[in-house]
Design brief:
361 residues; alpha/beta; six-stranded parallel β-sheet; 16 helices; 16% strand; globular
Length: 361
């Protein structure tokens, strides 16, 4: 049978950096790239990025500056529904906010966690209508799938499709990255996440001096930016290196340079539906210490240590133990790599094709 024609409507997409952006890119490239178009809003640098993509990219404003803000996405969905076999909404808002039944396109919604759990009041009612209009939901974890089914009675079938990862070696030179970012020769703990409250950077920083005292030369590299940057800078010691937002090649090199990847977190309505950074670290053979919130345990898959969400003292102790126990760290590193291999993009693309064939034809 010929490949289906596929359109993915993605309000968050490359060249922006983020988990959803990575998920959409990988899915488009690994499932049916020759017959897929991704429709995404224009952003700085998109022409250069789009020219190298293995699938077609169409740029269109999806969110209007005035109400109804979702009308741009609605018009795109309405047009595509009569042109393709499979329409994938990368998020329920705005792409699935008011989907129009036109044509024979089968509709699939990607669910990531936070946007489902965090919807309240009128937004929750809109989210439920949007989800119920789909033929299928693909959730990024068992945790997210459970949230969809619990919060939306009468929802369509839900399948779990964890995000994939590139398991090849980083293209950047590790020594050049180490020198450019001013990293010393001591052990490296890496956190790659936006500096927002739910990530818990500032709260963990208060426990970092205890790690410094027990692990001489240890350095905590924080890759990312956000509203708590100044607060973290004020709380950080000299061995905390805030490198800001970095490009994808540099980030992959940092995962490879790190001895431990750290995903702190605080209990919040904005949950980690999966914890993609854990798998990205695992692809580099780096174990993680993570808060047991949302779907992070599924991402970890035995390749690290889970601690109760918000318990920064326990998290600091776990980081210290891994830095000082090389055999255990190496064992967890191997498990982390095997977990990443399970989610190599070719396997994820194959699973998506199978799900579509079995569920929506």
């Amino acid at each position: 049978m010929p490949d289906p024609s596929v359109a993915i409507v993605a309000p968050n997409f490359r060249p922006r950096i983020g988990g959803i952006e990575s998920f959409v890119e990988g899915l488009a490239a690994s499932a049916w790239p020759a017959s897929t178009v991704v429709v995404a809003p224009p952003v700085d640098g998109d022409r250069v990025w789009d020219s190298t993509a293995p699938f077609r990219v169409e740029r269109s404003r999806l969110v209007w500056p005035v109400p109804p803000r979702w009308l741009g996405a609605w018009s795109v969905v309405r047009r595509l529904s009569g042109q393709v076999d499979l329409l994938v909404c990368a998020e329920w808002w705005p792409a699935a906010r008011a989907p129009a039944r036109r044509g024979q396109a089968r509709r699939v919604l990607m669910a990531h966690g936070t946007e489902i759990v965090g919807a309240q009041g009128r937004a929750e009612a809109s989210m439920r209508r949007a989800v119920r209009s789909m033929d299928l939901v693909v959730a990024n974890s068992d945790y997210t799938a459970g949230q969809v089914e619990a919060r939306i009675p009468g929802c369509p079938p839900v399948e779990v499709l964890c995000p994939g990862v590139d398991i090849g070696p980083p293209s950047a030179d590790l020594g050049e990255v180490r020198d450019r970012l001013g990293l010393g020769a001591g052990p490296v703990v890496l956190t790659a996440a936006r500096l927002v409250t739910r990530k818990g950077h500032v709260e963990f920083a208060r426990h970092w001096p205890g790690i410094e005292a027990r692990v001489p030369g240890a350095q905590w590299v924080v890759a990312g930016d956000g509203p708590r940057a100044d607060e973290l800078r004020a709380a950080a010691t000299s061995s905390v290196k805030m490198v800001g937002a970095v490009d994808a090649d540099t980030l992959r090199a940092l995962y490879a340079l790190a001895d431990v990847h750290l995903l702190p977190g605080l209990p919040s309505a904005e949950v980690e539906g999966f914890g993609m950074a854990i798998v990205e670290a695992g692809a580099a053979g780096t174990p993680s210490v993570a808060s047991d919130l949302g779907g992070t345990g599924e991402a970890l898959g035995g390749g690290g240590v889970l601690v109760p969400g918000g318990d920064m003292a326990a998290m600091a102790e776990a980081v210290t133990e891994l830095l000082t126990d090389a055999p255990r760290r190496m064992d967890l590193a191997g498990r982390a790599r095997r977990r990443a291999e399970e989610l190599a993009w070719d396997r994820v693309g194959e699973r998506f094709r199978r799900i579509i064939g079995e569920r929506v034809g």
